[in-house]
C-alpha cells in the first residue's frame, strides 16, 4: 500500500508541477470556447434530443471514433454513445500504433525496406489463430494507408528512433522496436524493423503518455465531420423488429441541457478516475467511479434511438471480476489495466443477439524489464533456479512463460558490473515518473548478496540449480555459442560480486505490480467486422470493433498492437456499416417506408 501511495504522490506532484491542461475527455467542440451556455459549446441539438442517425456507435474510445469517422466519410450520419466522456482506456494508454510495411516514419529512421510481407511473416507468429491469414494480410497491406489516414485527421507521428531498448520512449523519440522483432525466433522469421509509432505531443496525464493526444485528434476530427457525441450515455439493450432486424438501442443518458452542470461535474469525476486507473491506484479510482456512478444514477433518463446499423466498440472486460475469474484462473494476481467502462457490457450486448465469443481465456500480463536496457543483460530464473525465457523478449511474451510454466514466480539476477550500468542509464533512458520509480528499485527494492549462493538463499531460489544456470549462461558467452534459451543481444557474463536480485513475480498492486488485460471478444467476420453467431452466420446490422471484437491482439499482445487493431477494425466496421446503412435506406425507400 505504501508503494501505491508513493506512485500516486509522484504522479500528483507531476500534475501540480505542470501547467494546467485542458481536459481530454470533453464534449465541447472547441476547448477554447468559454461560453456559459452549453447549447452554444456542445455538439448537441439545442433541445438535447438527438435525431435518429444512420449508424449508432456504442463506445467513444479510439476504435469507436475511428469507426465514426470512417462511416461519416462514406456519407452516413453517426451518433456515438459513450458511458463516460470519451477516450476510454485508449486515452490513458501510451497511444502507440503498431504499423509497418514502409511507413513515412520508418523511412525517416532508415527502415524504409520494411514491407507488408515482412510484417506479415512476423505477425503470423505473434497473432497465431486470432486472425485468419487473409485478414492479417489485409491488415499488413493497409498499415501504411491507415497511418496516412490518421495523419490526415490530425495525428502527428515522427521518425525519431529510440537508440535503446525501451518499453515506452522518452520525449526525445517517437519510433521504437515495440515487440519481439529482434528476439528469437522472430528475428529468424522476418527482418527486424521498428513498428511502434508513438503520437507526438504533450502527454495529457500524470504519466505523460500520449494516448490522450491520439484520441483527442481523432475525436476533434469526428466532430468537425458532423459526428454527434453523447457522453454519460449507457446502452442497455439492442432493439430488433419482429423479423429480427436491427432497430436501434435503448439507453440511459444525462441530458446536456437540463443537467448541464451535473454532466460537467460527472466528466471531471470520470477524468480523475481514469488518472488513477492508469496507475492502478484502485482505491482512489473506485472512489471517483462511485461518485460518478451515483451522480449518473440520479440524473440519467431513459431514451431510445433508432437505427438499422449498430457498431459495438465499448471496450474490454478487465473490470468484470466475475468474467476474469471465470476465464483466467490467475486474474486476481495481476493489476487490472483499464477503466470502469471495461466491464464487458458491449460484448454482452452482442451476445444478446446471438453473437459468439472467442479467446476469452486469453489475458496479456507483462513484466517489462527495461528501460534501462542494461537490466536485459541479467537473467531471469524461476524459484527452481532455471532460466524462464530469453530476457530480450517483449515483457508479455516472457511473462506468459513465467505464468504457464513457473507459477508466476521469477527473479532477475545481475552482477555488480551490470548493476552499475543500470544506474548510469536511468537518467537518459527513463522518463518521469518512471525515473523516480526505477531509482527506488535500484537503491532500495532489491536483494543483495556477496555470492550467488547467498543471493539464491535470500530469494528462496534453489541455489544449486541457479548456480548451474548462471554457469551455463556465462560459458555460452565466453565460448561464443548461442544462448541456452535463445537470447540474441545484451549478453554479458554474471561474475562480479556482489550480486543483485529483483523479485519480478506476479503482483496485483504496489511498485512491482504486473498490469494485465484480457484479449478476447465477439467473433466477427474478417472482411466486414460484422458480428457472427456460433455457426458463423453474420448478424445483419451489428458490427464490433476494438476490444469488443476478437482480433489482431487476441492471441498475444505487444505494444501498439491493440490500438492498431482499434484503428483497423474500427475503420473496417465504419466503412462496411455505412454501406449497410445506405442499403437499408434504399430498401426502405423501395418498400415505401414501411
From TrEMBL:
One function term, GO molecular function aspect: oxidoreductase activity
Region (Disordered): 21-47, 187-208
Signal peptide: 1-17
Gene Ontology BP annotations: steroid metabolic process
Cofactor(s) the protein requires to work: FAD
Keyword Oxidoreductase: yes
InterPro entries with a match to the protein in the record: FAD-dep_OxRdtase_2_FAD-bd (IPR003953), FAD-oxidoreductase_2 (IPR050315), FAD/NAD-bd_sf (IPR036188), Succ_DH/fumarate_Rdtase_cat_sf (IPR027477)
Domain annotation FAD-dependent oxidoreductase 2 FAD-binding: ranges: 54-551
Alphabetized UniProt keyword annotations: FAD, Flavoprotein, Oxidoreductase, Signal
Gene3D superfamilies referenced in this protein's UniProt entry, alphabetically: FAD/NAD(P)-binding domain (3.50.50.60), Succinate dehydrogenase/fumarate reductase flavoprotein, catalytic domain (3.90.700.10)
Keyword Cell cycle: no
Pfam families with a match to the protein in the record: FAD_binding_2
Protein's recorded name: FAD/NAD(P)-binding domain-containing protein
Organism: Sodiomyces alkalinus (strain CBS 110278 / VKM F-3762 / F11)
Amino acid at each position: 500500500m505504501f508503494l501505491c501511495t508513493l506512485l500516486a504522490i509522484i504522479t500528483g506532484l507531476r500534475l501540480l508541477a505542470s501547467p494546467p491542461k485542458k481536459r481530454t475527455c470533453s464534449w465541447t467542440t472547441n476547448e477554447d470556447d468559454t461560453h456559459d451556455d452549453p447549447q452554444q459549446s456542445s455538439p448537441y441539438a439545442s433541445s438535447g434530443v438527438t435525431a435518429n442517425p444512420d449508424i449508432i456507435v456504442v463506445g467513444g474510445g479510439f476504435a469507436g471514433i475511428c469507426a465514426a469517422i470512417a462511416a461519416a466519410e462514406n456519407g452516413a450520419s453517426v451518433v456515438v454513445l459513450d458511458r463516460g466522456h470519451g477516450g476510454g482506456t485508449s486515452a490513458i494508454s501510451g497511444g502507440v500504433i503498431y504499423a509497418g510495411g514502409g511507413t513515412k516514419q520508418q523511412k525517416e529512421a532508415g527502415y524504409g525496406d520494411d514491407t507488408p510481407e515482412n510484417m506479415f511473416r512476423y505477425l503470423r507468429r505473434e497473432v497465431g489463430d486470432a486472425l485468419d491469414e487473409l485478414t492479417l494480410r489485409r491488415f499488413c497491406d493497409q498499415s501504411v494507408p491507415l497511418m496516412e489516414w490518421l495523419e490526415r485527421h490530425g495525428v502527428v507521428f515522427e521518425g525519431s528512433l529510440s537508440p535503446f531498448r525501451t518499453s515506452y520512449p522518452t520525449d526525445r523519440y517517437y519510433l521504437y522496436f515495440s515487440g519481439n522483432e529482434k528476439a528469437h525466433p522472430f528475428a529468424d522469421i522476418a527482418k527486424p524493423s521498428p513498428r511502434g509509432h508513438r503520437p507526438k505531443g504533450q502527454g495529457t496525464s500524470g504519466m505523460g503518455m500520449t494516448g490522450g493526444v491520439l484520441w483527442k485528434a481523432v475525436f476533434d476530427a469526428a466532430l468537425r465531420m458532423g459526428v454527434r457525441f453523447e457522453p454519460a450515455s449507457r446502452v442497455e439493450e439492442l432493439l430488433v423488429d419482429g423479423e429480427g432486424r436491427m432497430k436501434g438501442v435503448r439507453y440511459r443518458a444525462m441530458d446536456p441541457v437540463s443537467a448541464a452542470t451535473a454532466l460537467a461535474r460527472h466528466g471531471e469525476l470520470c477524468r480523475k478516475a481514469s488518472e488513477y486507473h492508469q496507475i492502478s491506484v484502485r482505491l482512489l479510482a473506485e472512489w471517483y467511479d462511485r461518485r460518478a456512478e451515483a451522480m449518473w444514477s440520479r440524473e440519467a433518463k431513459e431514451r431510445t434511438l433508432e437505427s438499422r446499423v449498430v457498431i459495438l466498440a465499448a471496450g474490454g472486460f478487465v473490470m468484470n471480476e466475475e468474467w476474469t475469474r471465470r476465464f483466467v484462473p490467475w486474474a486476481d494476481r495481476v493489476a487490472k489495466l483499464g477503466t470502469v467502462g471495461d466491464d464487458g457490457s458491449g460484448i454482452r450486448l452482442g451476445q444478446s443477439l446471438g453473437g459468439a465469443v472467442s479467446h476469452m481465456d486469453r489475458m496479456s500480463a507483462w513484466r517489462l524489464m527495461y528501460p534501462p536496457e542494461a537490466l536485459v543483460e541479467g537473467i531471469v530464473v524461476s524459484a527452481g533456479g532455471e532460466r524462464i525465457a530469453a530476457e530480450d523478449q517483449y515483457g508479455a511474451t516472457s511473462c506468459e512463460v513465467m505464468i504457464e510454466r513457473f507459477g508466476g514466480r521469477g527473479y532477475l539476477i545481475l552482477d555488480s558490473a551490470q548493476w552499475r550500468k543500470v544506474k548510469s542509464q536511468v537518467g537518459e533512458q527513463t522518463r518521469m515518473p518512471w525515473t523516480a520509480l526505477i531509482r527506488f528499485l535500484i537503491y532500495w527494492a532489491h536483494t543483495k548478496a556477496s555470492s550467488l549462493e547467498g543471493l539464491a538463499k535470500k530469494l528462496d531460489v534453489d541455489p544449486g540449480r541457479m548456480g548451474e544456470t548462471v554457469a551455463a549462461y556465462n560459458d555460452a558467452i565466453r565460448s561464443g555459442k548461442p544462448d541456452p534459451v535463445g537470447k540474441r543481444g545484451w549478453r554479458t557474463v554474471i561474475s562480479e560480486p556482489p550480486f543483485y536480485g529483483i523479485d519480478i513475480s506476479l503482483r496485483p498492486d504496489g511498485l512491482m505490480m504486473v498490469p494485465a488485460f484480457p484479449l478476447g471478444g465477439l467473433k466477427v467476420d474478417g472482411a466486414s467486422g460484422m458480428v457472427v453467431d456460433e455457426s458463423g452466420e453474420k448478424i445483419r446490422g451489428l458490427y464490433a470493433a476494438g476490444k469488443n471484437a476478437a482480433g489482431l491482439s487476441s492471441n498475444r499482445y505487444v505494444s501498439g498492437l491493440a490500438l492498431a487493431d482499434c484503428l483497423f477494425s474500427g475503420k473496417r466496421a465504419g466503412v462496411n456499416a455505412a454501406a449497410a446503412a445506405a442499403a437499408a435506406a434504399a430498401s426502405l425507400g423501395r418498400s415505401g417506408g414501411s
